[in-house]
Specification:
By secondary structure, the chain is of the alpha/beta class. The chain has one domain: Purple Acid Phosphatase, chain A, domain 2 (4-Layer Sandwich). Helices cover 23% and strands 23% of the residues. It has 6 helices and 12 strands. Strands 1, 2, 3, 10, 11 and 12 form a 6-stranded mixed β-sheet that branches. A 6-stranded mixed β-sheet has the order 4-5-6-7-9-8, with helices on one face. Strand 4 and strand 5 form a beta hairpin. The two termini are 16 Å apart. The structure holds fe (ii) ion. The site of fe (ii) ion has 6 residues, from loops.
Length: 279
């Protein structure tokens, strides 16, 4: 099975960059299933149902989020009717939405588990993500129908966090039991994409889809001002130069029988960063 995961979509330029490059990625990589992190899609802060529907119409199968999930408050009232938009699983009990979902692939042949959790180091900490994810992977086991009625052909975790160490720990904890553990939130693609010893593809951060002539997607002037002047400056808004937008992510090919990764390649197209496209 062929999986495409793209990192945090930041603002208008990130959304348009995704819509501009996704057709080419679909043509060249023929993914059976596409996941994106959408938590910065609405002006850099949050996501709405309307934006999510634009992504779904473009061929995205599932959207993950993170600490900015509720920045557009209207989503609180919308998320329960959007089955393929998920929020971190470790929010307090009773929070709207869901932390994981099982969805069919485009061709209907595969069942895919997508999970979203928030890391805690250097973050506003939620509940412990490790037991929360453990409970899901114990029920939805990798290996398809051989694993019973809840078996899945592929399993993906978007682990949204700051510390690469915490994300690597999650990768090792789940190694051999999911297809892909990928970090988001730091908006910079890390160079550690690998297949762990148990067969799980892993990268500490997929990188954002947004304008890289910026500070993690936001206009650099306001970020520089805040850091160096320590006085109120302009509100943070996404950088918007389409010429420096790079769409970043990972392409993973799994073994249909085991659900584990056979191949993991970086994807970087458009604009600023050095390009990477699987053969
Ligand atoms: Fe985030």
């Amino acid at each position: 099975m062929r999986l495409l995961f793209l990192g945090d979509i930041v603002g208008r330029s990130g959304r348009e960059g995704l819509l501009r490059h996704l057709p080419e990625l679909q043509q060249r990589l023929s993914p059976d299933f596409v996941v994106i992190n959408g938590e910065n899609a609405a002006g850099g802060f949050g996501i709405t149902e309307k934006i999510a529907n634009e992504f779904f119409a473009a061929g995205v199968d599932c959207i993950t989020t993170g600490n900015h999930v509720w920045d557009q408050k209207e989503l609180l009232g919308q998320i329960d009717r959007i089955p393929n938009l998920i929020r971190p699983i470790n929010y307090p009990e009773g929070t709207p939405g869901r932390g994981y979902t099982v969805l069919p692939s485009k061709n209907g042949r595969y069942k895919v588990l997508v999970m979203n959790a928030m890391a805690r180091v250097f973050m506003d900490p939620l509940d412990d993500p490790f037991p929360a994810i453990e409970r899901v992977v114990k029920v939805h086991r990798l290996g398809g129908p051989m694993m019973g009625p809840n078996g899945v052909h592929a399993a993906i975790l978007d682990f949204h966090g700051e510390a690469t160490s915490e994300k690597m720990i999650m990768g090792h904890v789940l190694d051999g039991r999911v297809s892909l553990v990928v970090g988001t939130h730091s908006h910079i693609p890390t160079a550690d994409l690998q297949i762990l010893s148990g067969g799980t593809a892993y990268q500490s951060d997929a990188g954002m889809c947004g304008d890289y002539d910026s500070v993690i997607g936001m206009k650099k002037e306001s970020a520089i001002h805040k850091m160096t002047r320590k006085t109120p400056g302009e509100r943070f808004t996404p950088a918007e130069n389409d010429a420096t937008v790079t769409v970043c992510g990972i392409f993973v090919e799994t073994d249909d029988r085991t659900g584990l990764a056979k191949r993991a390649e970086p994807v970087r197209v458009g604009g600023r960063l050095k390009q990477a496209m699987p053969e």
